[in-house]
Specification:
Chain lengths: ~425, ~110
């Protein structure tokens, strides 16, 4: 089917997207510093001020800001229609940029007063604008593409998560829910982790991975199955949490999510097997590693449930569970995909109008490959040592691992700033 | 790598110009990648009709690639306007890659 090109401007201007990337990178750095400073607090219950502050800095400042920024870039490409409103995208950034530090400060000081409440309100406002902008873009495109369903559904789960989060902040000061806010944290956390992060990463990853590997593999039926499995797992978890309240009931959502992850791993494996580009670059290797790392929270959760079913609890596993999600697969895929997407955004800005007329560098030339490799090595070692240190409660290991993660964040920021400060040059 | 044309001589010149345009992600030019389907010339209307494809319909560099293709053709054939159509029928496949391209990609 021929398509007349008229330079439809499906590319979102870099000035709209880049602030999200920069904010996310700085949040990652700050989170790793906070992780280093938390030290012994990580051994106790997860409901601690510093743990909650780090979790929200990672979930909102790092993961959500990065994914929101990338979505503003990728959704127009996937739908073939430009972003509904650039102004709303900017407003969404400003609200989140102010709201997140207020919320994190509230958690760090365990003050659920005005800073946390205003932080929560601003984050909600930001997410509302983001969801509206995204929905308006996909609806106008009229796309029935499975990837669009993943992204739209993920955005709706994000909205649910943020609304629930704000309710919990209010419930801290005026308890109007049947139970304390602490009791509802698993609900808030899992709508965010499964509904927002997992659905979005699968939806976008299933488009980007074959594209970057130059693979023609496509399996819409498999993706629809994964889409339903993740949503069924989440809905059944919410139902079990609210109405059944027995640990045994969580086995169904756990098994369903495991099936979804295994199927996504199969999808990625088939993309790798059928790829035309034999050489896989380092950012892509790290992104593919993150797919394998998705299985680690399921393993930890299975252990946790086994303990719970035998009437025991182990706070170490809860800390490790949160760590392998936020510092694990979510971080790994962002570290990898940043260097597959950001260089293109900057490259487009400088070289789109010069290509074909002058020799221009490739997007991959915009970042330092050696620094990326050291960063990846630092990250993998830091992640492994921290998990080991948290399980064995070895303070020294936790400190070494935290330093390695700070190094990862510093190198990540350095390479990102190098791309940001790129000046036009010929190849 | 078969390119349909109504003017073999000018098509050869057009393809040589299009070889200057790279797919930035892959690092291979549009001709060796087999992205060019058809180049027709209408001397009376001063128009070049270029039909091409992309490696994927959702290529984020699509706009950069198509505008560069138009630009080099209009630079090479001054005074002529390029009308570009993107076609995904038939979809691009590795069979369309030239021997040089296959060597480059290690296929």
């Amino acid at each position: 089917m021929p398509v007349q090109t008229d330079s439809t401007m499906t590319v979102t201007p870099s000035r709209v997207v880049l602030p999200f990337y920069l904010y996310a990178a700085l949040s990652f750095l700050l989170s790793t510093i906070l992780l280093f400073l938390s030290g012994e607090n990580l051994h106790g219950h997860y409901f601690q001020s510093q743990t909650l502050a780090i979790t929200h800095m990672m979930a909102l400042g790092w993961g959500t800001m990065m994914i929101m920024g990338a979505s503003h870039q990728l959704v127009p490409v996937i739908t073939g229609h430009h972003l509904h409103s650039l102004a709303l995208a900017r407003l969404s950034f400003y609200f989140a940029a102010v709201g997140i530090p207020l919320l994190v400060y509230g958690f760090y000081e365990m003050d659920m007063g005005m800073p946390a409440k205003w932080g929560g309100r601003l984050v909600l406002l930001s997410v509302l604008l983001f969801v509206y902008n995204l929905a308006a873009t996909t609806l106008r495109a009229g796309s029935r593409d499975v990837h669009c369903y993943f992204i739209t559904m993920a955005a709706l789960w994000l909205l649910t998560t943020v609304i629930l989060g704000l309710i919990l902040v209010y419930n801290f000061t005026y308890q109007f829910l049947p139970r304390s806010s602490l009791a509802y944290l698993p609900l808030h956390a899992h709508t965010g982790i499964l509904g927002w992060f997992l659905l979005l990463v699968i939806g976008v990853g299933s488009r980007l991975i074959p594209m970057f590997l130059l693979s023609k593999y496509s399996n819409k039926k498999l993706l629809w199955l994964i889409f339903f499995l993740v949503n069924i797992a989440l809905v059944s978890f919410i139902f079990s949490f609210l109405f059944i309240k027995a640990e045994r009931a969580y086995l169904l959502p756990l098994a369903t999510i495991l099936a979804a992850l295994m199927l996504f791993a199969v999808y990625c494996y088939r993309c790798i097997r059928t790829r035309m580009r034999k050489k896989i670059d380092a950012p892509m290797k790290l992104s593919l590693l993150s797919i394998l790392m998705m299985l680690s929270p399921v393993i930890v959760l299975t252990l946790l449930l086994t303990f719970l079913l035998s009437g025991k609890t182990d706070p170490r596993l809860v800390v490790v569970y949160g760590f392998v999600i936020f510092f694990g697969w979510i971080t790994a895929i962002i570290l990898g995909m940043t260097f597959k997407t950001l260089p293109f955004i900057i490259w487009n800005k400088f070289y789109q109008s010069r290509m074909g007329l002058h020799p221009v560098p490739a997007p991959t030339d915009l970042y330092h490959h050696g620094v990326f490799k050291v960063m990846a090595l630092g990250y993998i070692s830091g992640f492994t040592l921290f998990t080991w240190g948290a399980l064995s409660e070895t303070e020294l290991l936790l400190k070494i691992a935290s330093v390695l993660l700070i190094l990862t964040a510093v190198l990540y920021n350095w390479n990102m700033i190098r791309i940001f400060l790129h000046k036009t040059r010929t190849a | 790598m078969n390119v349909v044309t109504n003017d073999n001589i000018r098509c050869t010149i057009a393809l040589a110009a299009l070889e200057q345009v790279m797919d930035p992600e892959i690092g291979l030019n549009l001709v060796d990648l087999g992205l060019i389907y058809q180049v027709d010339f209408d001397e009376a209307a001063k128009k070049i009709y270029l039909t091409m494809t992309l490696t994927t319909a959702f290529c984020p560099m699509g706009e950069a690639i198509t505008s560069a293709a138009k630009r080099v053709l209009e630079n090479t054939f001054s005074g002529m306007e390029t009308i570009l159509e993107l076609s995904f029928e038939p979809p691009w496949s590795s069979e369309r890659i030239s021997e040089e391209g296959k060597t480059f990609l290690n296929i």
